[in-house]
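The authors assume throughout that readers already know how a fold can be written as discrete tokens. A single example would do more here than another paragraph of explanation. An entry of this sort, consisting of the sequence and the corresponding backbone structure tokens, reads as follows:
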Amino acid sequence: MAVKKLEKPSNGRSPVPKRTYFSFTVVIGIFDGGIKPLEEFLLRLPGEIQNAAIILDPHTGDFPKSLLIQSLKDQTSLLSHAAVNGIAFKNNTIYIVPAGSDVSIRKERLSIRKLSVEEKVAPDLCQLFQSIADEAKEFAIGIVFSSDSKDGAAGLKAIENAGGLAIRLHHYSPSQHGNWPNSSKNQDNHAVFQANNAVKAIRNFTVKLTREAINKNMSKATESNKTLKSKEFSQIDIEKLKTRNIALTFRNQELEIACARMKRVNDKLKRKGRQLLKSDKEITNANQLRENLEQSEAHFKGAFDHSAIGMALVAMDGRWMEVNDSICEIVGYSREELMKITFQDITHPEDLQLDLEYLNELITGKRQSYQMEKRYFHKNGNIIWVLLVVSMLKDKEGKPLHFISQIEDITDRKKIEEDLQISNERYKYVTKATFDAIWDWDLKNDTVYWGEGFQTLFGYNTKILGAEKKTNSKLIHPVDFLQVNEGISRLIAGTGTTWSAEYRYLMANGEYAFVTDNALVVRDENGLGVRMIGAMQDITRKKRE
């Protein structure tokens, strides 16, 4: 969804409030003689459908495709070309479908099948409309240029049932209107009239969509905040993650120490073997050393095999040398399957280069270990996120032997972070889309978020307003302040959830505006108010009329 800022008019009036533009799928059916209304419509193409994929479905027997393509390029800012089979949708593009084709839309792709001569089936505009309704739902617009009210009627109904907009334009036809004098001028005037009606209908439709989106999001504010609260990471969660990362680092160091200890014991055992005498004492000592070595190896293998996180020994070229059950469960491969591939084979291409750079720094001694978040491809094709901690084991001469990797599945955490980001962006777009001044008061921390409407309606820079509620209180007319303050205090202290009031509000130019302020309180599981969200509307003009 894109937002376009309108320039201030030359007459000195205040700028027109921001409008919201949706990404539409628009299908236009053209029947006998519908070219002129189509050209007039494209000349007046409303800004609301600049983010659109437009499909022209001609049903005339001899349709001038090349002439229309050039006309579209000359008259609009949209790209236009004849559509081919299997083309993906792009915004700001007009696709011209060949006549006599069976057209459908699935997963944002336009599919075209040329009808054979044997089929002798006319193109079905209703079927195309149905595909648009199934795919685009409420962001679909269907337009028919035709003198016959039956053309595409069932398809237009499908778009309406899905919540979209259906428009029928009856172009001028001498057979219907008679051979009037100056019929060419009448035809031109009729085409302009129908094109203007289509533009007006589209603009009213986008206003309706915007209002519905705002009302829907405001009505679900309480439940959305509960969902966000269950998903968002608190400072305590972040600290827990940091602590867990530190624990993983310590665990890695312990493994390095165990490996080094095991190597020293093994070296000592070899030296002792060369020096063994046939005395009982020396034989006993050798047996004790061997027993210690076996115990050390058993402890390491037990920690390796039964670790709750994935652990692996990886060769210098990336081959899996040894893996535990946790890694197999994370990536979906068996031990035997992993032994036949490298970690590079299942690493996401966008993460591989950084991973290899870190490994090179381990080899050259610039790092002792490293950790990173990266993506693996699961055996079933899904992408999984992991936290990877890697160190390297060297021999006594300092030559690299192999890497020690610890792998933890963090896919669920990444999904929660992604959902939180999407929710925050959605809330930000809602505040931009509305003509109201949105405010969001954190009752626990006594901080306030001011929406962009405060600058649009009242002329205040939201950064200057600051994050304190008392700043806004000073802008309420002194006569109205007591009533507003008592109403809000009663709502927070009580058990209600909504509040509404009319009062005067000081604007940046020094004048007072009449406003209505509607708000709701979000409460925790104990019924205490933790957040208050409101929307202010300027009703000054209505008061003075």
Residues 499 and 519 are 5 Å apart (CA to CA).
